[in-house]
Design brief:
With 113 residues, the chain is mainly alpha-helical. Helix content is 58%, strand content 7%. The chain has one domain. Helix 1 packs parallel to helix 4 and helix 5 crosses helix 6.
Length: 113
């Protein structure tokens, strides 16, 4: 990811607006949505995942839309969040349906995975 895009990403996720939305979302979704799909009913949500990564947006406006769209969010536990990102990276590198190398590149540069 280019430095300018990395700066925009950090500006968004460290901003007051994102933190408010994150807290709002977790209050409304207190349990991990991925665990719930598997019948695990008591795993608390610890993180909010963006289904379409913020860094795949083209410019600040697109990135903000991805970041703040409640339909792009999922409350997850830490373990599920790691698994989701690992699967996204693998799928992206294999050229999976609807993905591009851009997601893998973004994840590698942002998170080292």
């Amino acid at each position: 990811m280019k430095d300018s895009k990395r700066r925009l990403y950090k500006q968004i996720i460290h901003g007051r607006e994102w933190h408010r939305l994150r807290e709002w979302y977790i209050v409304r979704h207190p349990f991990c949505e991925e665990c719930l799909k598997r019948g695990i009913m008591d795993q608390p949500a610890e993180e909010v995942h963006h289904k379409t990564p913020i860094g795949t947006g083209h410019g600040f406006v697109d990135m903000k839309q991805l970041a703040y769209d409640p339909n792009n969010l999922e409350a997850v536990c830490h373990e599920c969040h790691k698994k989701i990102h690992k699967a996204m990276k693998t799928r992206s590198r294999r050229g999976g349906k609807g993905t591009s190398g851009e997601v893998a590149e973004w994840m590698e540069e942002m998170f080292g995975i």
